[in-house]
Amino acid sequence: MLEVRGLNSWYGESHILHGVDFDVQEGEVVTLLGRNGAGKTTTMKSIMGLVPRRQGSIRFKGQETLSLRPDEIARTGIAFCPEERGIFASLNVTENLMLPRTVAPGGLDLPTIYTLFPNLKERASSQGTKLSGGEQQMLAIARILRTGAKLLLLDEPTEGLAPVIVQQIGRTIREIKQRGFTVLLVEQNFRFAATVADRHYVVEHGRVIDMIPNAQLEASMGKLHGYLGV
Ligand code: ATP
User: Fold this and answer.
1) Of 5, 120, 149, 230, which cross-links 79 as Cys (Cβ 3.0–4.6 Å)?
2) pTM of the model
3) Is this complex scored with an ipTM above 0.90?
4) Which protein residues are within 6 Å of ligand 1, measured from CB?
5) 193 lies in a domain?
């Protein structure tokens, strides 16, 4: 579904990605693991066209997207949920959910969203500012499910959340996968990653240096600790 080949990206004069290669198959949940500053977020932003200078190839469902604008990329069916979540503080949950523009058929309607996220249903009329970090994260994921995008890029959805909320996010991601969505996930927490993902790519210094199938993650812990410096 997504093929990234030889991706190079720059912020101004800073050369951040040095030939990133990886694939995501339709229906998979795949993580990008790596230390702070390895280039995981830059990879996601590059896929969304949000990094001004890029080279290489990014094909989504066979279509080259490298030269497309971010809004054109969104309309191919890719959605990005940034680490900062981007909830509108002055709007309530339902209003936040009504905002996104449909980019493709198959976006989830409000009743389906509220079935998937019962916590959000309870908080439907609460303002963005009143939501907990976990609720904001759920809302950010729910919002991109409204758009009809089929490939969801989630940047550290568990960052700063309590373990019980992390488990909820895990359940949500597994359910999204069951519904046929494809997920690319940036994670620092590989114990969490193991509960949701089919495969893991390790990013280091702007390159993908390894791919670990989830079934081999446990056996690869020593190697992973080395990569991630934990
Ligand atoms: P983190 O978990 O810290 O976000 P990451 O692997 O996602 O790690 P990136 O955010 O992709 O890393 O950052 C990769 C490198 O690019 C870092 O050295 C960072 O300082 C640099 N960088 C990120 N954003 C910018 C920017 N807007 N301008 C210049 N340099 C940037």
Assistant:
1) 149
2) 0.93
3) yes
4) 11, 14, 16, 34, 36-42
5) yes
